[in-house]
Write a structure and sequence with these properties.
- The complex is a heterodimer of chains A (98) and B (392).
- With 98 residues, chain A is mostly helical.
- Chain A has helices at residues 3-56, 68-81, 86-96.
- Chain A has one domain (3-96).
- Chain A has three helices and no strands.
- In chain A, α1 packs across α3 (86-96) and α2 runs antiparallel to α3 (86-96).
- The N and C termini of chain A lie far apart (62 Å).
- Chain B is globular, with a radius of gyration of 32 Å.
- Chain B folds into two domains: 3-47; 77-391, Porin, CATH 2.40.160.10.
- The chains are: A mainly alpha (98), B mainly beta (392).
């Protein structure tokens, strides 16, 4: 192998190395974004569950299950009837329609 | 470049060993990074991994994209049903009740809602077999709500009088822990528990640990049954602390007819998070009378034995007292004399929507009104969509 061949091979090797480093970096960035999204989603659901039990349980036994198409109407009704905050309603709807 | 000195062997030519080493390093690096990354994902989260990011980069869960499909609200039909038998002073009463509720959402900000009550009070027919009584029909509320923004909801039509917490929140038969009404319920809720006019209400966060809710209303006088109401205005406000799950507040009402009197009241509710316990209390005072009730309800879900059954059982106790006021109640809904009533009840929840209810109470009233009060019954709540809706 000549010096030229050696340098070409070296460039190829470093190119592969760089590509190898780039791919996991991109994957890591995407996965990190996904992790953040999952974390935010989980936080929203946990928040919704807490608010569901705290607000619905103030007056009655919380229903075990409501079909999602009912949830929007029922929560609008409860926002008026039980004077829930808009933020609480959003979190509860997210929890009930997960 | 001095690299030559490193990669060139003794023979003065690039060594295959060095090249293979570079290739191996490249392959190892390329392969190992995802492996390490995958391992990080598979590992159980450590404490540091579960710690939330700093606040400045932490997205608010409510600002994050909703993880749910966009749902179109559909009209809903609901109904509370009760079949209760009561014995007051040895006199049996059959009290069947049906209370249908309709909810019609319009767009993103409007809601038309209504509730009626069909109730009967049957007593044994003294002239023969069977029972006799009458059917009461009541339009509890028929109102249009406009959710203007996060702070204000505007309602108009016929609405439940927002005085205290029982009339608006705890009145439905499938919600209340004891089937009898509190003695002070008629104070400031008018002849039918409802007003006809307009109302502003809303709730918002005062701080991350406290919410403020308010309601203010004006009602006009109507004498047309079943839409009768008084001419009055009033307000109610409360603070809710989500952490300890405590709410307390106050109500005020000014009557714009008859003696133009003022009424006021206070309410309190507490659901301690570690316990399946509800504590509620109200106090109300008007020119017709005053009084209070305090109620505790405990679900036996934490009893360490027979848990399959115990978690369905709820024990309830309520103490209440009424003091006659300066003026006699024209509607006759309030007790005519000072009255004290203690009730103890047991409810069994077959599911969250159907339950068996029972209670025993002892009433102490002036002028020979001491008597026992028993109730036994079943309550049921139905809720169903009217239409298929749409999921986008």
């Amino acid at each position: 192998m000549s010096w030229r061949g050696f340098w070409r091979s070296s460039l190829l090797v470093f190119g592969l190395l760089a590509a190898g480093r780039l791919r996991p970096a991109a994957a890591q960035q995407a996965a990190s974004h996904g992790e953040a999204s999952d974390s935010a989603r989980q936080q929203l659901l946990d928040d919704g569950e807490n608010k569901f039990h705290a607000n619905c349980g103030r007056c009655h036994q919380p229903p075990h299950h409501l079909p999602p198409r009912l949830v929007m109407t029922v929560e609008r009704h409860m926002r008026v009837r039980a004077i829930l905050t808009e933020a609480d309603v959003k979190a509860i709807v997210a929890y009930l329609t997960q | 470049m001095r690299r030559v000195a490193i990669s060139v062997g003794k023979c003065g030519r690039p060594g295959w060993a060095a090249l293979l080493a570079l290739l191996a390093l490249c392959v190892a690096t390329t392969a190992s990074v995802p492996a390490v990354f995958a391992q990080q994902q598979d590992e159980p989260p450590t404490e540091s991994a579960t710690e939330p990011p700093p606040p400045e980069i932490q997205p608010s869960p409510l600002e994050a994209p909703m993880p749910t499909p966009a749902l179109t609200p559909v009209p809903v039909f609901s109904m509370g049903v009760a079949m209760v038998t009561a014995w007051q002073g040895g006199q049996p009463n059959l009290e069947p009740l049906v209370s249908p509720v309709g909810l019609i959402p319009i767009g993103q900000k409007w809601l038309v809602e209504g509730r009626g009550t069909f109730e009967s009070d049957l007593i044994p027919d003294p002239t023969g077999l069977g029972w006799k009584g009458y059917l009461e029909e009541e339009a509890d509320y028929v109102q249009v709500d406009y959710l203007a923004n996060k702070y204000v909801t505007f309602s108009f039509g016929r609405f439940l009088t927002p005085f205290g917490i029982f009339n608006e929140r705890l009145y439905p038969v499938w919600i209340r822990n004891l089937q009898s009404d509190p003695l002070i319920l008629p104070i400031s809720t008018g002849p039918s528990g409802a007003g006809t006019g307009a109302m502003l209400r809303g709730a918002f966060n005062l701080t991350p640990k406290a919410e403020l809710n308010y309601t203010t209303y004006f009602s006009t006088k109507l004498t047309t049954t079943p839409f009768d109401s008084d001419r009055e205005w009033g307000f109610r406000t409360g603070v809710y602390l989500p952490g300890p799950r405590v709410e307390f507040g106050a109500s005020f009402q000014h009557l714009l007819q008859a003696d133009r009197s003022n009424s006021f009241g206070f309410h309190f509710a507490w659901q301690p998070p570690p316990l399946p316990l509800d504590v509620r209390a109200e106090y109300a005072r008007s020119s017709n009378g005053s009084g209070y009730w305090v109620e505790g309800a405990y679900k036996l879900s934490q009893v360490p034995m027979w848990q399959n059954e115990m978690r369905h059982v709820q024990l309830v106790a309520r103490m209440q007292e009424y003091f006659r006021g300066e003026f006699e109640d024209e509607d006759g809904d309030l007790p005519a004399v000072n009255t004290k009533l203690f009730e103890f009840g047991m409810n069994y929840y077959f599911r969250d929507d159907i339950r068996f209810v029972s209670s025993y109470g002892r009433q102490f009233a002036a002028e020979g009104g001491n008597e026992n009060v028993w109730t036994v019954g079943v309550t049921y709540r139905l809720v169903m969509p009217v239409g298929h809706g749409d999921v986008r």
